[in-house]
Amino acid sequence: RHKQIMDEPTENSEYYAILNCGRDASTEEIVRAYRKLAQVFHPDKHLDEEHRKQASESFSKVQEAYEVLSSPERRQVYDVYGKQGLAAGLEVGDHLRSRDELKMEWEKFKAAAEKEKEENSVVQKGSYQCRVDASRLVHGDWGPGGRPVGGPMGLFKSVTAQNALDAMVGDKNVVSMSGQAMVRPVYRRTPQGLEELTLGGGNVVFGFRRIISQDDSVDVSCQLGLATLLSFTTSRRLDPLSGRDAWLNASWGPGVGLGLQAGCSQSLFQHGATQGSVNVVLGPSAASGVTTAISHRAGRWTIMSKLEVGAVHSISARVSLAISQNYTLRAIARLGTTGIDLELGAAKKLAPQVSGYMGASVGYPAGVLLKLRLTRANQSLECPIIMSTSYDDWKVLVGVYTIPPLLFLATSRFVVRPLLSWAKTSRERNAHAAAFETVRTALSQAAAEQSLIDRVARRKVASEQASPSGLVIMEAVYGILEEYQQARAQQIQQRQQQGGELGSSTDTAASTTATTTSSSPAAAASTDPSTSFETGREGSNDAEPAGARSNLGAAAAGPGPEDAAASSNSSSRQQGEVPEDSHDRGDASRDGAPQHHHQQQQPSSSNRGGAEGAEGSSGRSEGGSSGKQGRKNGQANAPPPRWLRVTCALQYLVTGGQLSLAAGVSKAGLMGFTDPAPHAEDPAAKQLYVAFKHKGRIFEAVIGDMDALELPPGAGAAASAASAPGAQKASRPAREEATLAEEEMGVLNERQPSLKEVTDPTDLAFLESRLKQWLEHGEH
Fold first, then answer.
1. What is the pLDDT of residues 620-635, one digit of tens each?
2. Sequence-distant (≥ 6) Cβ neighbours of residue 368 within 8 angstroms
3. What CA–CA distance (Å, rounded) separates 426 from 161?
4. Distance between the two ends of the chain, CA-based, in angstroms?
5. What is the pTM of this model?
6. Which DSSP string do the residues of 343-408 spell out, in sequence order?
7. How far is it, in rounded angstroms, from Cα 647 to Cα 689?
8. Whether 396 contacts 138, CB under 8 Å
9. Closest CA to 42 of 671, 516, 544
């Protein structure tokens, strides 16, 4: 089990991601991160029953991560083996176990090793043949009553079955047992007609092999049945480099006498592609002779030839050509004292261990035969069919060489292939549906986590906007960013088209409203908290705060540097929830503006899967009714988007104008995150996109899934460097201010290479509208 876990790849960053801690985090940092998350996800912090249930599920993850990482021993096991190591009870480092523990562990190991060895040491081989005579059916030679001569069994010439079993006994002993059985019908003519008789027989062979050394072995076998035979064989490898082997066999049988044969084989050339063998039979005299065989393999070609001289004289050749990975052509020719025949056929690989063969043979005196064979691992089933007993039956010969291949091709093309394609498509569809459902479940869980931290994240937006060096996350997306960029471009284009249809008067009014409200961004912040709270609870669609109008105008006319500050007052309290501790929410969080639930114009359903609509189909939409509506419209089997918005989750992690994500930790494990593309071909394609506002300027950055993120980059160093000349900054002219801004941008780019400032008016308007939509309607 230890070796199995060591061999399996593990991703041991999930617990660290849940707590948003680096792998080198101290115990104090882990405890501090746990307490911070417990303030939001503990069930006692929520009075609403649905929220308590969601918080209970999320808090179990947080508590599990804390219990493992707060324990030095369990944390060490998790770092090395992952969750599987914890489940298996593995340990790292020195551990003094008792004698009984060591003995029990050793006994378990030996039992498992012996069981595995026994399972792998048994080899089974089998060969089954059914010989069919269809010559009467082909020529229409039917008996009385339209039945074949000899009854139904008249079609079968013989049925033969052979089976062998080899098993290792110890390290150097092999016990084998094999058997053969044959049944064939015979007919005897009587005054009443043909009488069918069945003859059969078989034998059983017991064998034992002793491996004396790496190069020597001895075999002893005993055959019982049709013929009794004792056999003794010894073999030796003479030269391992050239593959030269030699063997000597002695046998004895009652009525047959003593038999003796010897043979050797070796590679004929240094490359080893050509093998040769010679076998000499010295007795008994009825079976004496010499057999020579040569085989050669070169690329796709395999050529084998054999010459027999003795009681039976024959010469044969076999050529195989692999025309593809699944198809092989074969040609076999035999000439000897027992007859002559020529066979042509083709083999196809049906499965990793399954192959089929179809061939046609013509010869004398066998006639015309159709051969079918199916092989799976060490088992084979063969069915030779006699189509004609005459070798010069040209009609049957042409039919055998043309009709079966055409039937095979037609069946494969119009029956088998469509069935296999349908089965494959069905399996893939079911697998995709199961995978999609798994992703949707994970997305729903992450959506529930975001709904729990949404209130705190909104308060942090208000607090960060009120701070001169605050950090506001305007848009954050995790997953396959190429698909997100396409969806974003589609939504921007659609919004531009919708804006063109509104008319110039509407645009002018929106622009005027934006100009008026953005000139006093503090107006919304001065709203009476009690009034804001009551308005938010009533859910009035008439009383729209100045901050919302400011952002709406920014989305239509293009935002200024300070436009997003007016949207800081869109947070709301949820009835029945216990507020977070005061040290986390800050003073500015008490001045939040009401949350409005009126519906904003959304993109059409045809754009679902991009921007708002894409995550809506997976239960993560900002304006989450679109996901439910998508399922109602029969889109449950549609693939969920491979990206998701995590603006709320990242804003929750901002503290004191800074955001830090540790390196070597997958972002998918963060609270409010999940992996939207678990089956991506390239896991490195998953990235995190962040657009944020800092000091009145909007930036964006893209980082890898396992990369570190620090926003703003080098915040501590930049703050210390700016502390000395800070008092003189207000008196510097605008030209020097621009120079300082350029220098600051250069420092930020050095610390975060993917960081760049957003200056395009279209992108600025889009980011402002995204932040506005979240603050007004929520991410879910």
1. 333 344 344 444 444 5
2. 360, 361, 362, 386, 387, 388, 390, 391, 393, 396, 397, 400
3. 38
4. 44
5. 0.54
6. EEEEEEEEETTEEEEEEEEEEETTEEEEEEEEEETTEEEEEEEEEES-TT-HHHHHHHHHHHHHHH
7. 10
8. yes
9. 671
